[in-house]
Amino acid sequence: MMFIILTLISVGLLVLYVKYKYFTSHRPIPSLPAHFLFGNLLQSGLLRGASLLQVYTSFKKQLGDIYEIRLGFLHEIVVGDIDDVKHIFTHRHIYDQSDWIVEFMSVFIPDSLITLKGAKFKRHASITMPLFRHGKILSNFDLIINCTDELLNNWRSTSSDHIHCDILQQCQNLLLEIFGFIGFDYDFDTLRGTKNNELTLALRNYINTMELGVYLSAFLFSAYLKLSPKCRRAQRTIKRYLYRMMEQELTETPESRAQRKKTSLIASLVASLQTDEQAEERKSEEEKTGNQNLIYSSECTSAG
Length: 304
Hints:
Blueprint: H1 2-22, H2 41-44, H3 52-63, E1 66-71, E2 74-79, H4 82-90, H5 100-108, H6 118-128, H7 134-139, H8 141-157, H9 167-184, H10 198-213, H11 218-227, H12 229-250, H13 254-260, H14 265-272, H15 277-282, H16 285-303
Antiparallel strand pairs: 1-2
Helix pairs in contact: 5-11, 6-16, 8-9, 10-12, 12-14, 13-14
C-alpha cells in the first residue's frame, strides 16, 4: 500500500514539474493557456491540417506582433513586426541564442557537424566542409544546371492549364537529386516521379519523423526513434546503401578516387579512411590537429 502511495505521489510530482517547466508561461508576453503535453497544438489547428503560416497569422491577430506559443514541447517566442525583427538581428549580441536546434539534432542525427566538438568535429569537418566551398560548387555547376533543366522540362511537358500546387515539394526533390549526385554519385530518382527507389523512400520516412520530433522533448523523441519499427527500418536501409556505396568506391583506383574526392563526398570519405585505426587512436591531439590543418591548407591551395 505504501509503495502505491509513493508511486502516485512521484507521478503527481512529475506531472507538476513537466507542467510547470514546459507548459507554463514565465514571461510577461501575450500567450494562450497551454494544455498539458499538447501546449497550444489544439488551439493552433496544426493537428487538423493548418499550415504554420496560418497558425502564426491567427495567433498574431489574437495576441499582437510579439507572442509566446507552445507546440507540444517546442516553445517559441514569435516576433511578427519587421522593425522588431530588424532590431533583433542588428543587436543579436544582447539576445540569448537558443540551443534547441543543437539539442534536436543531437537526437535526430547525433554525428552532424552542429553537434560535434573537439577532434571528432575536426575530422568530420575536414571531409565535408571543403566540398561546399565556392570553388568546389563551381565544378558541379553543369550538374546543377542539368538537374534544374530536367525539372523545368517536366513542368513544360504538362498541360498549360495545369496548376502546380506542389512546387515546394518539387524544389526539395531537386535539391535532393543534386545532393545525391554531388555527395554520393547516386541518383535518388526524385525528378521523374518514380516511387520505388528504396533509399529515397527510407530517407523520406526518416526525415518525416522530424515533424513529430519538433513537438516532443529530447527524451521522448529519442525513445520514439529507438522504438519505432518504421524509423529503425529506415535507418537500416540508409546504412546498408551507404556501406554499399563505400564498398563500390573502394573498388575504384587510387588515382580515380584522388581526382573525384575534390567533388564527391563519398570519394572524399573513402579516401580519408584510416588503414590503421589503432595507430590513429594512439596519435596525440596535437598530431590530429596538425593533420587537420594540413588537410585544410591543401584544400585551400587546390581550391585557389
